[in-house]
Amino acid sequence: MRSAPVITLAVLAVIAATAGDRAGGAEKEPPACAAITFRPVPSGLSDGEQNAGLYKSRFGRIEVMATVKSGEAVDYFVDVNGKRPDAIAGTLPASIAACAKAKRLGPVGNPPEHCLGDKLAVLIDHTGAQRYVLLYAHRGSEWHFCSVGGA
User: Fold this and answer.
1) How far is CA 73 from the centre of its chain?
2) pTM here?
3) Greatest CA span in the chain, whole angstroms?
4) Where are the alpha helices (DSSP H) in the chain?
5) Listed residue (145, 12, 134, 142) closest to 64, CA to CA
6) Which of 64, 99, 136, 138 is least surrounded, with the fewest CB atoms within 10 Å of its CB?
7) CA-to-CA distance for 148 and 40, rounded, in angstroms?
8) pLDDT digit string (tens) for 34-81?
9) pLDDT at 99
10) Phi/psi at 137 (nearest 5 deg)?
11) Is the distance from CB of 134 to CB of 37 less than 8 angstroms?
């Protein structure tokens, strides 16, 4: 009969170890470089701002939004946690170029007046405490930079 307490202690040890792993997972940092792809909105939507896609994780919520006129998307932009990222002034860190290259996206350059494409991608780069959010549009066979903001 002494084996029952030993088994009980073993089960409790496994449960405690599993609970410790879950608690340790909550302390994880967001990835330093990530890219998430989205589809464009379909034709025929009502005019105004329409949601093209949503990505939600424990680190935040990213939405790609479309500005629609006459049933067609005329521009795309990103919302992070319900608002547009702050504009970035000055030079961007080198880690952004490395992140874009690692994710096979185009280089950062001058943004076009309107962001349009057959696919969209949001690139997230964490440099220290700063998080950069970049929007790319796929046209032809290449990814083109659209915008950058800080969240």
Assistant:
1) 21
2) 0.77
3) 78
4) 3-26, 94-102
5) 134
6) 138
7) 19
8) 999 999 999 999 999 999 999 998 888 999 999 999 999 999 999 999
9) 93
10) -120, 140
11) no
